[in-house]
Amino acid sequence: MTSIFTVHAASGYEQLMGRWSRRLAPKFIDFAGLAGGEKILDVGCGTGSLTFELAKSADLAEIQAIDFSPVFVAAAKEKNSDPRITFNQADVTALPFADKTFDRSLALLVLHFVPETGKAVAEMRRVVRPGGVVAAVVWDHYGGMTGMRMMIDTVAALSESGRQMRSRYCFQPMMQPGEMKRTFAEQGLADVSEAELMIRMDYENFDDFWAPIRAGEGPLGRYMTTPDPAERDRIEAAVRDAYQAGRPDGPRSFANVAWACRGIVP
User: Domain named Methyltransferase type: which ranges (predicted)?
Assistant: First the structure.
C-alpha cells in the first residue's frame, strides 16, 4: 500500500484540497528553488497543482509528474497542453526513472499519506543528480490546520471511533516538528532546512466546506462512510454548528500551516 489518501472523483478532491494546494504551490516553489532549463520530478502530483505552477514559474526543460491514483493522473492529463509536461501513474517508493535523472524532485502534500516515507525520500534522492534538490511540504494536521481541526475535534467529541480517527489524522507521518528534517538527513541528504508555510482557506458557506466530506473525499470523508445515516446527520449538524459558531451561515476563513523541508543530494 503506497497511499492512504482516499479519492473518488477529481472534482471532489479539487473542492476538498486542490484549490488550496494551488495556493500553497507558489510558496513551496519559492522555498524549494527553481532555475531555467532544469528537469523536475513532481512526486504525487494529484490534479496538477504543483505541476502547472512549475510550468508557469520558470523556463523548464522537462516536468515529469507521477501519482499513484489513476483518477488524478487522468484528470491532470486532460488539463495539460504543455509539451514539457508528462503525467504517469507510478509509485513514489519505486520510481520508474534512472539514477540522477532530475535536477529537483518535489512533493507537495504527499509524504504524510505514504506509509513507507523513508523509502519515498530515498527514491526522490536517488533520481536527482549530485548537487540537486529534494524538497517536500506536508500539512501540520495537529497544530496548523484550524478549520480541519475544528471539524475533526467536533467529530471526536461525539464517539470513540471519532477519537480514534482524530488520533490517526493528527499523527500521520512527517507532521511533527523536525520529523521530516530528520528523515531527510537519515536518507543522506545534506544542508537540510525546514520552514513553515502558511495560506488561508476561504469558504463561501458551510456547504462549500462540507460537501467534499459528505461525498467521501479525504480522511474524514472516508470516516463518514462508516456511520449509519442517523449518525451521519448528527455529525453533520454538530460540524455545521462549529462552523457557524452562533452566527448566520456564510463566508469563513481559516489559517493553515504546512511544514516544508529541503535537502541537497551530495
Answer: 41-135
